[in-house]
Structures are given as structure tokens and as C-alpha cells.
Write a structure and sequence with these properties.
- The chain is of the alpha+beta class and about 200 residues long.
- It has a domain of about 120 residues: Nucleoplasmin core domain (Jelly Rolls).
- Helix content is about 15%, strand content about 35%.
- It is built from two helices and ten strands; from the N terminus they run H-E-E-E-E-E-E-E-E-E-E-H.
- The strands form three sheets. Strands 3-10-5-8 form a four-stranded antiparallel beta sheet, with no helix packed on it. The protein has a four-stranded antiparallel beta sheet with strand order 4-9-6-7, with no helix packed on it. The protein has a two-stranded antiparallel sheet with strand order 1-2.
- A hairpin with an 8-residue loop joins strand 6 and strand 7.
- The longest helix has 21 residues.
- It is rod-shaped and about 110 Å long.
């Protein structure tokens, strides 16, 4: 029969084993712990709203417009006379006008009163949206940046003064009417009518 003797582990071995246990427990805790994101300069902390990180940008950001689902390109051949409707949104839709291209093919006497005026109404009234005073025959374009809203029930209209004749191309896209609500606008107090409009109204 053999007499087996077991020696107790040294104090260093015990302490090392305890350290391993602590480190494993700390790692497990860290895996489920919350993490705070802070600005290293201002110490401002990031915010989470409904599970989403809120982010803001202070610098200029360049974006690209998404391709619209429905584009349109209207054509009208117009001359001096009463109000002309250039584009009317179909039922249930609204228009965003991006540009109007005016190809003037008749302009015998350029000057005051020889003008093409655009409105966002069905009867050429209200705030003026753009004018073209063609110096000669040829193409002129009016662009509207992000777009000119034409709500349901309204239209893009034009009136031509003098002896101008032109082809007018209207480019834009349509949206559901609910996304482009009608806007009520008030003319600026004390605003005066331009000389061109006065001449046009006397024609």
C-alpha cells in the first residue's frame, strides 16, 4: 500500500487563480454593459432615442435627390393674348415644377412689354413665379431650385405680352396631392406693380 501525500497550493497560486476568476467575470459583465459615447473635447454624451443613435452634422453635406417616380414634360406653343394653362396636376396629384424652357421664335421688337410671365394659379393671378424678357429669338430657361409647388386644384399658367411667340416646355414630377398642401400667400404690403405688368394689363 502506497501512502500518497498532497501538498497545499502556494499562496501565489491561489491568488493567481482568484485573479483569473475575477477577470473572466469582468469580461462577462462588460459584454452586457451599457457603453457611453462622449466627445473627447466637450465631454458631451451621445443620445439614443427609441433605440436609435441621434446624430447631427455641423458642416456642409452634399446630397443627391432621389429619382422621382413620375416625371412629366409638357409642351405649349403660345403667343400674345389671354392666360394660358401650361400644366395642371391630374386628380389626386400635385406637381413640382423644376424648370420652364422658353424657345422664342418670334420677337420683332424686344423691350418693355415684350414679356412672358408665369403664375402658379389657374388664371394668371397671385404672386408671379418667373418672367422672361427675351432679348432676341432663342432659348431662355427659368429654374426653380428644389421645385415650384403646384398643389391639386392649381396650375402653372402664363401670359405673353407684346408680339412674342414661343414654345414653352415645362419639366417636373408629380406627387400624391397630400404631400403638396395648398399654401395661402399674402402680397407684401406696399408692393408696386412692375412697369411690364402694367403694360401687359393694358394690352
Amino acid at each position: 500500500m502506497f501512502d500518497q501525500k498532497f501538498s497545499l497550493p502556494s499562496t501565489g497560486t491561489i491568488l493567481g487563480f482568484i485573479a483569473v476568476l475575477i477577470s473572466l467575470g469582468g469580461a462577462a459583465y462588460a459584454a452586457g454593459a451599457l457603453v457611453t459615447i462622449a466627445d473627447p473635447v466637450t465631454a458631451a454624451k451621445a443620445r439614443v432615442n427609441a433605440g436609435r443613435l441621434e446624430v447631427s452634422v455641423d458642416e456642409t453635406v452634399t446630397t443627391r435627390l432621389a429619382a422621382p417616380a413620375t416625371t412629366f414634360h409638357n409642351f405649349n406653343s403660345v403667343g400674345a393674348g389671354p392666360c394660358v394653362i401650361l400644366a395642371t396636376p391630374p386628380a389626386g396629384t400635385a406637381f413640382i415644377i423644376q424648370q420652364v424652357r422658353v424657345n422664342t421664335f418670334q420677337n420683332p421688337s424686344p423691350g418693355v412689354g415684350q414679356v412672358i410671365i408665369l403664375w402658379s394659379s389657374t388664371n394668371c393671378t397671385g404672386p408671379i413665379r418667373g418672367t422672361v424678357n427675351p432679348p432676341t429669338i432663342g432659348l431662355n430657361s427659368i429654374t426653380f431650385g428644389p421645385g415650384l409647388n403646384i398643389p391639386q386644384g392649381q396650375a402653372l399658367s402664363a401670359r405673353i405680352g407684346g408680339s412674342i411667340a414661343a414654345e414653352i416646355y415645362t419639366d417636373g414630377f408629380s406627387l400624391p396631392a397630400a404631400l403638396v398642401p395648398a399654401l395661402s400667400e399674402i402680397a407684401e404690403s406696399g408692393a408696386t406693380m412692375s412697369k411690364q405688368i402694367q403694360v401687359l394689363q393694358r394690352q
